[in-house]
Amino acid sequence: MKKWLIGLLFMLFAMVTVACSSDDADANEDGNNNEEETDSTSDEANTNDEAASDEKQVVTFWHAMGGALEEALEEIVDNFNHSQDEIQVNAEYQGTYDEALTKFHTIAGTDEAPTMIQVFEIGTMSMVNSGQIEPIQNYVDNDGYNMSDLEENIINYYKIDDQFYSMPFNSSTPVMYYNKDAFEAAGLDPENPPATYEEVEAASKQIKENNPDMNGFALQAYGWLFEQLLANQGALLMNNDNGRSDTPTEIGFSDEQGKSIFQWVENMINDDTFANYGTNGDDMVAGFLAEDVAMFLQSSASARGVVDQADFEVGVAFLPHPENVEREGVVIGGASLWMVDDNDQAEKDAAWEFMKYLQTPEIQAEWHVGTGYFAINPDAYDEPIVQETYEDLPQFKVTVDQLQSTESSYATQGAIMDMIPEGRRIMETALETVYNGGNVDDAYQTAVEQFNQAIENANTARGE
Amino acid sequence: MTIPTHQKVIFYLLLIVSAFVIFAPALIAFSMSFMLGQDVMSGKILPPSFTLDNYVTVFERVPLLRFLLNSFIISIVIMIGQLVLSSLAAYAFVFLKFKGRDVLFFIFIATMMVPFEASIIPNFQTIRDLGWINSYIGLTLPFFALAFGTFLLRQAFKQIPKELKEASEVAGMGDFKFFLTVVLPMARTSLVTLGVYGFLTSWNMYLWPLLATTTETTRTVQIGLRQLQTQEQLNEWGVIMAGAIIVVLPTLILLFLGQKKLQKGLAEGALK
Fold it and tell me: SS3 of A299, please?
């Protein structure tokens, strides 16, 4: 008994020590068995500081593309690595956009920091202010790269004070998805979807009359959609030209513009045609696919998934706008690629090569077709694989048309400010209040006050 | 005293129903893992057609085996570390007499009030400055000291009669020998409980492994699960559920094996 126990305890101790001391050895061994991944770890450790000239230049690329998107991205990265033998790009998933950004802020300046990182569009100002990045404008200038070859409505967003801080990458805009079969059953023209708030309301009523089990319209309580609906009316989210000419000091939309969205929702709630899925986008899509709701707004990047998974004909339409204003267009959403400053010049140059590679028409065509994100380089739309896809999936083309027919203005350029994530939460709360039967005027007023307060707090925090 | 049969039947019926309700999410996940994306999205509960594609996709999409191995290594190391440190600390708090022992113990216990999330940033900075990011040591070491474990084992050790200690002293037995040959065997149930508890909590950790790793070599399964989900696009729930089922299996097995001891041990800690 005694011996047995001493032996056991000894083993425990031994295991702890072994486990701790052999970490590094472990990691390397495992790596070798595991082909690609191992390469990345061992290389990274060695080459980050002293890049031997005969070795491949390693570029560490942090991204937030999970699931099927990661597969598509990995494929592009692999192709790049095989297309030449000077640069090795290691794409590493770092959690959601939020998590990746937080992680970057804590790790920036250490050896573990990446060469380039993908950051969502509303993290733009926070990256600019972080002091950890090098504007890609430097590379554009040195290399004579022509940014104007890229999609105008996309680069407009990322152009700040006539400078490019980051390279646009995955971009999407919201569109309206609708159930063509349900439209037909209700006696609506499936090829002529509603374009205005009023038409959406009328169509919803007709659908509900025809089929009491199906609601007309769903709007996810999502701040991004609220911003898009504002922009589509030509309204600014924040003053000072959406923060493009100076730091914003308050909201930029009028009561009429802001309230129109809340009012629209309330009308449909009163008609009993509105489906409330709260803040959950997955639930909303599930509701649409289960034919509980006939129309909803969602990112164009979902187009392929929605069309593929529906038992019925799915239509894609432009974002609706109030009848009394002209359609202005949409703001780009998604993410861009940032160059991290604190790295060797050779490493950054290699990352720049990769960024340029990503923007070539062939790669953008592959990316567009594979994921549903836009092609940053409009030449990609002429590529055969894109044309073929449009024949099978005409819905894809609508998303591109909506982007390309967008009027270029401060409203559709989109707001830049570091407190936008907070602003979105405020709008989401307000929308949910209305969904749950709250008073529109009260909810709107509270949201505006909180939004202005958030802008003020952000400015104070920066000492402005 | 025995329970009459009809009462027993009612009890068991109720138990079966509540067990089913509690287990429902896991059952639905299990059934979803065999469904096509289309069927999942249209809200079906039982698979209309059976497919194993999701399981294949999971293994293609993320290096799940590697993540599983990492999770095992990390959970086992943390478990052992916690057992060793907690039992030694608990021994000191029960059998060694020194000034301020009780005060020290209460300060020790008070650290249970500080959630890990609150100390995550300082911990992270320490690990980062030591260069332990992406290493097993950085993933495990911060979890070795566990106030709860010390507390649990102290309660267990207290049930060991003081006379045994005195007798062993008379017999000329040192503290360490007494600890190994008398205390540990007597507290076996609590040790197993703590071990299972430590293993499960480490297995389910998300935030720390996410922060402390930047590459796939040392990542755990929980991050792998997250990696299966997308933003801005439709999620393939079938694939995600297949991943979740694979990840849950080891914990379930462990739970079935250690269930009796776990219950007994946890109740022991609660009584005194």
Answer: strand
Helix residue ranges, H only, A108-214: 124-130, 137-143, 152-158, 180-185, 197-210
Look at residues B226, B67, B235, B237 and name the one whose alpha carbon lies nearest to residue A96.
B226
pTM confidence score: 0.81
pLDDT of B190-241, one tens digit each? Answer: 898 899 889 989 999 998 998 888 888 899 999 999 888 887 778 888 899 9
**Single-letter amino acid code for the residue at A200:** V
**Phi and psi angles of residue A58, each rounded to the nearest 5 degrees, phi first:** -95, 135
Tell me which amino acid residue A115 is.
T
Q: Which residues of A touch B210 (CB under 8 A)?
A: 95, 99, 103
Residues whose CB falls within 8 Å of the CB of residue A343, separated by 6 or more in sequence, listed in order: A113, A115
Angle B74-B80-B83 (CA atoms, 0-180°, nearest 5)?
A: 135
Measured between alpha carbons, how far is B175 from B169 in angstroms, rounded to an integer?
8
The answer regarding whether domain A56-172+333-387 maps to CATH 3.65.10.10 reads: no
Averaged pLDDT, A10-18 = 49
Q: Which of B76-95 are b and which e, b meaning 16 or more Cβ less than 10 Å from the residue's Cβ?
A: bbbbbbbbbbbbebbbbbbb
List chain B residues with CB under 8 Å of A70: 61, 227, 230
Domain residue ranges of chain A, discontinuous segments joined by +: 56-172+333-387, 174-329+419-461
Of B188, B164, B189, B196, the C-alpha closest to B79 is B196
Residues 6+ away with beta carbon under 8 Å from B116: B208
Q: Is A463 in CB contact (< 8 Å) with chain B?
A: no
Q: Looking up tokens 């290691």, which residue turns up?
A: A90
Q: How far apart are CA A216 and CA B239, in angstroms?
A: 31
d(CA A74, nearest CA chain B) in Å: 10
Residues near A8 by beta carbon (within 8 Å), at least 6 away in sequence: none
Q: How far does B14 lie from chain A, in Å, by closest CA?
A: 32
Whether the predicted pLDDT of A298 surpasses 60: yes
> Do the first three CATH levels of A56-172+333-387 and A174-329+419-461 match, i.e. the same topology?
yes
Q: State the DSSP H helix or E strand holding residue A132, giving kind and residue range, or none if neither.
A: none
CB contact under 8 A, B41 and A290: yes
Quick check: helix, strand or coil at residue A189? coil
> Position of tokens 């570029």?
A59
Question: C-alpha dihedral over A222, A223, A227, A230, to 10 degrees?
Answer: 70
Task: Please give the structure tokens belonging to residue B225.
Answer: 């699960």
Residue spans of alpha helices (H) in B130-235 = 136-140, 147-158, 162-170, 175-178, 184-186, 188-203, 207-212, 221-227
Start-end of H helices in A295-408: 303-309, 345-358, 361-371, 384-392, 394-404
CB pairs under 8 A between A and B: 164
β partners of residue A57: A87
Reported ipTM exceeds the 0.90 cut: no
Residue type, A281: G
- Model pLDDT for residues A332-376, shown as the tens digit of each residue: 999 999 999 988 899 999 999 999 999 999 999 999 998 889 999
User: Regarding the domain delimited by A174-329+419-461, which CATH topology (the fold level of the hierarchy) does it fall under?
Assistant: D-Maltodextrin-Binding Protein; domain 2 (3.40.190)
* Distance (Å) from the alpha carbon of B23 to chain A's nearest alpha carbon: 22
